[in-house]
């Protein structure tokens, strides 16, 4: 199958059909109509075989997750998903693999009203690069840089499930189905991000671990924070692992959670319970923003966690 036949068969009409796409897949460029009063949000992620996913990952799961990580970035800004471009490098044009990959991608794209508008296909070691584009009403984007002392810090969902699945997989141990799903099919919190416009003062998605990603938010805002580890939302599996080992690096640093960590001024905290119920998502307050720089984590006994675990870093050598 030729490159262009591959594109026509599997990617030319993938995702939702949007009226603001004047020209999509099939020309030198896509042509897009940005609605008046909207700001364009753009994010790009690359997933590489053997680095971001196991070489034997199910192609449907890879198609889904490769888009989910970008949608999570849009969610962290409060954006409405609109378009995506895809650069796919393949060892070979395996039609069974392509069909499943496109199905996983298309399922998530359609669910969020996103249309694939172009990209590139090449031959080589397996990797996936996806650029997502979203729209935000002008002036309402939620940035990392606006947290203020006294703001509450909250997270969605539970922390550490994907990290525990990865630990089990690397140790050749059985992986519970619910943990494997959290690793392979993370749920981008798009609706939550949209609803937090006008409520959250700052926000970031959790891809590299709570401690590292919150640290980026604190640095951008010029503030510090104190977390209560006893308040971290943990699934039974992760809670049991922490209780057995006393190792908090699993929920603090394992990454791949793709939950939202956000700050809310105290007067707006009353909106959180109703928002959680409306969206059927767990929202948990885990700490407070303070003026003094740095991140302090308090153990359940009130003592300070002596060393903060680092998050994932592609170029860390220690």
TrEMBL record:
It comes from the Bacteria. Residues 26-135 form the PurM-like N-terminal domain. Mg(2+) 2 binds at residues 45, 73. This is Thiamine-monophosphate kinase. ATP binds at residues 119-120, 144, 207. PANTHER family: THIAMINE-MONOPHOSPHATE KINASE. Mg(2+) 3 binds at residues 28, 73, 205. The keyword Magnesium applies. Residues 148-296 form the PurM-like C-terminal domain. Substrate binds at residues 52, 256, 312. The keyword Transit peptide does not apply. It catalyses: thiamine phosphate + ATP = thiamine diphosphate + ADP. Reaction mechanism of ThiL seems to utilize a direct, inline transfer of the gamma-phosphate of ATP to TMP rather than a phosphorylated enzyme intermediate. GO terms for biological process: thiamine biosynthetic process; thiamine diphosphate biosynthetic process.
């Amino acid at each position: 199958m030729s490159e262009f036949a591959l594109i026509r068969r599997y990617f030319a009409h993938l995702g939702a059909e949007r009226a603001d796409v004047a020209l999509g897949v099939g020309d030198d460029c896509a042509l897009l109509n940005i609605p008046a009063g909207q700001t364009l949000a753009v994010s790009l992620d690359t997933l590489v075989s053997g680095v971001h996913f196991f070489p034997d990952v199910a192609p449907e799961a890879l198609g889904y997750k490769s888009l989910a990580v970008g949608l999570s970035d849009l969610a962290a800004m409060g954006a409405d998903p609109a378009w995506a471009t895809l650069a796919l490098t393949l060892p070979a044009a395996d039609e069974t693999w392509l069909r499943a990959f496109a199905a996983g991608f298309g399922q998530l794209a359609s669910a969020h009203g996103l249309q694939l508008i172009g990209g590139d296909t090449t031959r080589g070691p397996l990797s996936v690069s996806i650029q997502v584009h979203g729209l935000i009403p002008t002036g309402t984007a939620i940035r990392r840089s606006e947290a203020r002392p006294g703001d509450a810090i909250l997270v969605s969902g539970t922390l550490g499930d994907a990290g525990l699945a990865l630990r089990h997989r690397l140790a050749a141990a059985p992986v519970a189905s619910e943990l494997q799903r959290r690793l392979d099919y993370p749920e981008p919190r798009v609706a939550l991000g949209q609803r937090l416009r006008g409520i959250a003062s700052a926000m970031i998605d959790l891809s590299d671990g709570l401690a590292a990603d919150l640290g980026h938010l604190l640095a951008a805002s010029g503030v510090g924070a104190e977390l209560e580890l006893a308040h971290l939302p943990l699934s039974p599996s992760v809670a049991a692992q922490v209780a057995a080992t006393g190792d908090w690096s699993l929920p603090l640093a394992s990454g791949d959670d793709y939950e939202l960590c956000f700050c809310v001024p105290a007067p707006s905290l009353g909106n959180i319970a109703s928002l959680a119920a409306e969206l059927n998502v767990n929202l948990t307050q885990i700490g407070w923003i303070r003026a003094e720089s740095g991140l302090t984590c308090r153990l359940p006994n009130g003592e300070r966690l002596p060393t903060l675990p680092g998050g994932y870093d592609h170029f860390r050598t220690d």
